[in-house]
Amino acid sequence: MTIYALSSGPGMAGVSVIRVSGPKTKNVIAGLTAKKLPKPRVATIRKFNKIDNNELIDEGILIWFPGPNSYTGEDMAEFHVHGSKAVVDTIQATISKIDGCRLAEPGEFTKMAFHNGKINLLKAESISDLISSETEIQRKQAIKIMSGKNSEKFNSLRTRLLKILSNVEAKIDFPEDDLPNDILDNIYLETNNIKNEIEKILNDQRVGERIREGFKIAILGPTNAGKSSLLNYLSRRDVAIVSEIAGTTRDVIEAHLNLDGFPVIVSDTAGIRVSKDEIEKKGIKLALEKAENADLNLIVVESKSVDFTAFLNEIAIKNAIVVVNKSDLGIIDVNEEIKKYKPIFISVKEEKNLDKLIDMIKENLKNKFISSEDIYITRERHRSNLQNCVEHLKNFHDKKSFQDFDKGAEDLRLATRYLGMIVGKVDVEEVLGSIFNDFCIGK
Fold first, then answer.
1. Does pTM top 0.90 for this prediction?
2. 11 with 158, same domain?
3. Is residue 431 predicted with pLDDT exceeding 70?
4. 308 and 257 in a common domain
5. In CATH, what number is assigned to the domain containing residue 391?
């Protein structure tokens, strides 16, 4: 089947790019241009016509990529046309009339490239991350993975495990032949070294996921403390409704920000208080869950927040900044429990000390991302596969008797399989859907 799709962004633009890939690509070029194929990988001016009545649709650039030297590994072409909806729709409607052509699904071009051995799963994911990157640190992380450093690391670990597995299976296949003691000792030593290397990779403070998904900041506090106003200030727009009525915010409201190149997700949450309202109680529960999962909590209180200290004891003991708002009203006697957290005094209304608060947030971000050069894990599936690999390596080491090599071999096979699943060295159909469905159509 030959697929086609708009690969550039939808909507009006100076230029739009329609991509075609598959065995009928030559037919598509012939149908639209009524001319012979242009030189490979050379931008060529062509007139594109309807195939039924030869009516001119547009004039633009055609680039022909014969397989296997193309992005997908198959015959592929790109039609660069004027970026109007009418032109794009008409060209795609014309292509659809050619037998064996259909509209591509999300990520199908990249999925085809994976199946044809042009890229591995890590590179496929990094392409998706690069497309969706919003900050410089996200772009750099995606580019680093595209360069192949992570693939080389996991392939190297897998190759070492395969070598160990071959020695173990040799012992199983030829039980009458004793392996030299130094080989047996090296098997346990090397598997232990690999386990330690993977555990070091896992002990990364989840920096890669933070960069890819965004640094999570939760704004918490009692009702009417100014949490929504602070969110609106940080976002530079009215994200949340601000009202003097207590309990206005009942759900979690999120804003995605770019803070000095760092991706940040700021969540405004329901005010914490004792409530009999079922909806508000659910909102408070969500707020506490956000506090548990946040990378940083901004606990916003007023200086008179006496009954909020129990909540402070539970949450502020974590990584948090305590913020005393409404200092424009005057700082009255601050609760001693609040003082011990060394709060910062601000006024969102008068924009007092907000720059200082933002600097404190930035410093916290820099500390979290300090080890970003050694990132090998950017998604939960990487972490899960590595954890499973370590678990089976531990199981292998628990089998101290050489007579248990047949059981130990299965642990090594599974450990090797989980490493292979990261880069796509084994049958990974079950994970392909979740990866490529995150792509836009046309990629």
1. no
2. no
3. no
4. yes
5. 1.20.120.430
> pLDDT per residue over 379-418, tens digit each?
999 999 999 999 999 998 887 665 666 777 889 889 999 9
Residues 6+ apart with CB under 8 A from 272: 220, 221, 222, 223, 284, 287, 288, 308, 311
Closest CA to 63 of 79, 46, 87: 79
Instruction: Report whether pLDDT(195) > 90.
Output: yes
Which residue, chain included where needed, has tokens 């080989």?
183
Please indicate, yes or no, whether residues 225 and 362 belong to a single structural domain of this protein. Answer: yes
